[in-house]
Amino acid sequence: MNKLLRLRPEDLHSPRYYRTLRRAIAAMVILVSLTPLVLVAAISNSQFHESYEAKVLEQLREVVQKHQQLIDFFLREKRGEVRALARSTSFDELCAPGRLGRELLLLQEEMQGVFVDLGVVDARGVQQAYAGPFQLGRADYSGAEWFREAMRSEVFISDVFLGLRGLPHFIIAVRRERGGEHWILRATIDFVAFNALVENIRIGRTGEAYIVNGAGRFQTTAPRGAVLPDTGWLAAQLGAPAEAPGQAPEQAPGLGPALMRATAPGAVAVQERLDPHGTDTLYVMAPLKDGRWLLVYQQARADAFAALRTARRHVLVVLGLGAAAIVVMGLWLSARVVRAVEAADAERAVMNEQVIETGKMASVGELAAGIAHEINNPVAIMLEEAGWVGDVCADLELPEADRADIEKSLTQIRTQGRRCREITHKLLSFARKIDPVARPLDVNAVVAEVVGLSEKRARYSGVDLSLALAPDLPPVLASPSEMQQVLLNLINNAVDASGPRGGLVQVSTRLEGGRVVLGVADQGEGIPKANLGRIFEPFFTTKPVGKGTGLGLSIVYGIVKKMGGEIEVESRQNEGTTFLVRLPAGEDRA
């Protein structure tokens, strides 16, 4: 800007002036645009970092909580099925031959094979009835830890263990009473189906989940590369005592009760610490099975927030592209402003051409007015002479046939003379902007009148005129002479378009969406697509020289627009053309 102020008067509007102006505009645009962009990027980066970390942690909580609810529901549902079976049948009924097998089949059908086998165990720990794929008919469970726990609880869900079958599984046991002694209905749950509930919790490259019991032992398949933190740390974080040295894992105090005391039911805890490999890791934990199990999800922090680093890189790229775009835009905008100033002379030349064209149209209007005045005089004389001839014929004694022909011809002369007078009046209206008087008009009546006047010319050209008029059309507010002019021009054009081969010209009316639609369709050669956009221009015509002036359709277009209507044309070559005039219906249109 200082350079602009230092320019001498003789340098204004010189190439040096335009170069300096372009540089000043570009510098201002770039500076004003880049400053807020950089400030917003710096502030938003800090806030986005905090909000994104909170969002990721909340998402991990939701994922773990959702699977916590899913697994708890799975256990409650299976426990409910076994309890219902134990309560609805007695010890003797279940021990009856084939009964336990049928119950197992029903459970497998309802639960999609989740139940592996069923067994009825007496108070001594001996299995009295069994249904399943293993040879466990008279198995002795008196020394099993799950049996001792089950005898102390009404319903018991064991940890995952190998047992007599040598495969990982866990048991749901329901205790019942018979003759003063307890007996147990136990069901084995398919480990694969249970393990699938946890295996599908995988997020990112390192995110994996597993279930551990109170002693820190895996209750699901250990994920690849997963290293369980020491149980002492888990116990300290969740409020449970660590496993005592030398104590058997089965006898270690569980994490569950302490966790349930330290947190609300269903609560999810999130911790961040180094794993045994020294990797900064996120741990998300939730209690299961009334606090006896723990659902653990772990993921390396770098992996959990990998999208944040990617987003930062993208922001830097976008910021760079934005800065480059601002620079380019500043240069382009300054160049465009200068070009706009330099193009002023060219725009003035275009405006001069438009003024000249407007003057030509004014001259055409004056010419049309002069022609109308010149035609009015012979038309008036023609009408007077026709009246005189009629008076003379009335006094002469002529044969009735000749007299009728003369009267018919005189009537035609008077009709056509009045039409010529209306046409000249229309030319005056076109040239002087004189608005004819509008009144409610019956379109069907005007169509019938104009078609009657055009029948002889159409018949001479080998064209048949057909009417398809809708009854009970509402009136339109229009000038009768203008309406006749519109119809006459459209019908004459349709007759001319039919050519020497003749054909059919159909004039139709209908009511469509609160508008009266007037259609004139011919079977002529059609209008080329290149000419469709120009047919309403003044003096544009495709007729041979001396056959048309090119004013007919332009006058029709002006009349229709003044009535508040629309005119459309549909044409296909060698098939024909249809003109559609849509006029507002009703007498109340102003």
What does the secondary structure layout of this molecule look like, with pairings?
Layout: H1 2-6, H2 15-88, H3 91-95, H4 99-110, E1 115-121, E2 127-131, H5 145-152, E3 155-157, E4 170-178, E5 181-189, H6 191-199, E6 208-213, H7 231-238, H8 255-262, E7 269-274, E8 280-288, E9 293-300, H9 301-304, H10 306-342, H11 344-395, H12 400-432, E10 439-441, H13 443-460, E11 463-469, E12 476-478, H14 480-498, E13 503-512, E14 515-521, H15 529-532, H16 552-562, E15 566-572, E16 576-584
Helix pairs in contact: 2-10, 11-12, 13-14, 14-16
Describe the model.
The protein is of the alpha+beta class and 590 residues long. It is 52% helix and 18% strand. It folds into 5 domains: 2-54 and 321-342, no CATH class; 89-193, PAS domain (Beta-Lactamase, 2-Layer Sandwich); 201-242 and 249-304, Beta-Lactamase, CATH 3.30.450; 345-413, no CATH class; 436-584, 2-Layer Sandwich (Heat Shock Protein 90). The chain has helices spanning 2-6, 15-88, 91-95, 99-110, 145-152, 191-199, 231-238, 255-262, 301-304, 306-342, 344-395, 400-432, 443-460, 480-498, 529-532, 552-562, and strands at 115-121, 127-131, 155-157, 170-178, 181-189, 208-213, 269-274, 280-288, 293-300, 439-441, 463-469, 476-478, 503-512, 515-521, 566-572, 576-584. Helix 14 runs antiparallel to helix 16. The protein starts with a helix and ends in a 6-residue tail after the last strand.
